[in-house]
Amino acid sequence: MLALEPVIKARLVGLSALTAWAVRGMTDTVDRRTVPAVDLSIRSVAAPDSKQGAVMVAPSWSITLIVQRSDVAAEQLDAAMHQVIGRLQGWAPGEAGGRKWEQLRLDGVSVPDFLPEGQAAIELSFATGGAYRALAT
Q1: Contact 42/122 with Cβ under 8 angstroms?
Q2: Cα→Cα distances 85→19, 116, 123, Å
Q3: 58 against 137, higher pLDDT
Q4: Ramachandran region of residue 79, left (φ > 0), alpha (ψ -120 to 50) or beta?
């Protein structure tokens, strides 16, 4: 499931609303104070279907759009949100980490609980799913 991080990042790089934004994953070693930025992380993981030989793992990926507070912050966030949803909604990442992943679907929009002083952000959550098979013993 963590193998999806670089695949999702690559999908977002190049969006016109994200020009000059840092696009960073939860495992990247970067200065997280830099904005504007897109932070990717796993928000939660469900296991909606579990059988003896396999389990469906359904991560919800958080895509947090962060800007400096300003007179244009709302416009920046809205434009970025529009393009991120357009790029990810219904997109199937394909093979990553040895399994095929289902199409991403928006499952929530929220404001992060904590932000550094002077920043504004919106968090988009996208769910997907992939099967993990039991290893032969």
Answers
A1: no
A2: 16, 25, 11
A3: 58
A4: alpha
